[in-house]
UniProtKB/TrEMBL annotation, chain A:
Keywords: Membrane, Plasmid, Transmembrane, Transmembrane helix. The chain crosses the membrane at residues 23-44. The lineage of its organism: Bacteria, Pseudomonadati, Pseudomonadota, Alphaproteobacteria, Rhodospirillales. It comes from Azospirillum baldaniorum. It comes from the Bacteria. The keyword Transmembrane applies. This is TIGR02588 family protein.
TrEMBL record, chain B:
The chain crosses the membrane at residues 20-38, 50-70, 82-103, 153-172, 187-211, 223-245, 257-278. Keywords: Membrane, Plasmid, Transmembrane, Transmembrane helix. NCBIfam families: TIGR02587 family membrane protein. It holds the Pfam family DUF2391. This is TIGR02587 family membrane protein. It comes from the Bacteria. It comes from Azospirillum argentinense.
Amino acid sequence: MADIRENDITSRDEDGSASVSRLAWISSGLGLLLFLGSVGVLGYEGITRGSGPPAITAVVEEVVPAGPRWLAHIRLTNDGGKTGAKVQVEGQLMAGDEALETSVAEFDYVPAGSEQKGGLFFDRDPRAHALRLRVLGYVEP
Amino acid sequence: MDITRQRSFLHDEAQFARALARASAGAIIFALPLLMTMEMWELGFYMDRFRLALFILVTLPVLFGLSYFAGFEETFCWQDDLIDALSAFAVGFLMSAALLTVFAIVRLDQPLPEIIGKIALQSVPASIGAMLARKQLGQQDDADRERRIRSSYPGELFLMGAGALFVGFNVAPTEEMILISYKMSPWHAVALAVLSLGLLHVFVYTVGFAGQESAGDDGFLSVFLRFSVAGYGIALLISLYLLWTFERIAGLSMMELVTATVVLGFPSALGAATARLIV
């Protein structure tokens, strides 16, 4: 090993082209950048993101007709520190205290610090009633 | 080998471009099973950030070591190995990013940490694949290198560890590892451990590790202890590390933990045993 290196250096000195090719510099520089970048982003995320439970809220984005029925687009936001799996969301059309209609959607994952979108179908127009959204529960992934 | 030929790989632009192309092919082929595994995408965003960061950090020395023993091009000093390791990481990262984007697993409207997590996790097997591409897809005329590995026992153990990491990683993210261990009785676990060790030893003899030439002198017990038992120990440790990294062991009883480690230890042991074929 040692003498191979010595030979190498000697021969570099001889022909004077000791430089590593530009392409090698570019690719290894890019590698270093990507390496430090990923570790940096992950480390920063690990420090700043809390370790608390998932805190998932659901809001209605838009209600559109879907054939003879109605579709309420919903958006889930997880501001907690952990990811929730199998998150169940229930939407109820309310007439006073009485639920006229109930629809349920299940989200495979709502990662910490991110948003997921979905939809609930209803037979009645949700815009004519109060639409109550509830995040029912989750399991740890 | 004359010096000019040796040096040409890293210092000639066209040669290096060809090595990079081969590395890209290797990254895709070796990482494809994991790129198309659902658990890998999910782990990318939900697994503990520090464990993922540590996993990426561990990858670089592994790449460096692989470059020393079997990189995608000839290297002759540690700077060359570092350049190769970083280039392999760049290739693995970019290939993972490209494929995950094409598969619509990574989308630009996702938060940055989620995107980085998914790509970074995939870039571990992809960059190892990039590093192994030379041996698998390229020419195999490195007699010097073979000798260098054979002469070093720690080098041999490192290769076993890298093989265990690579093959173990291919199955570690799946639910099946834990599911299989739930189904097994303690006697099944003992049988699997014996089988793993037995197969490992058979491979040590047939594939040809360092010291095999002198196996006649050392005797069965010495080779068995120095390579097979040591290799299985490494495979088990790496299995445990992988299970911990993927958060598969939280809440398991000691018995379940040992069984899960033995289950993952089987592919890891085979990886360690066949490291000489792969690397």
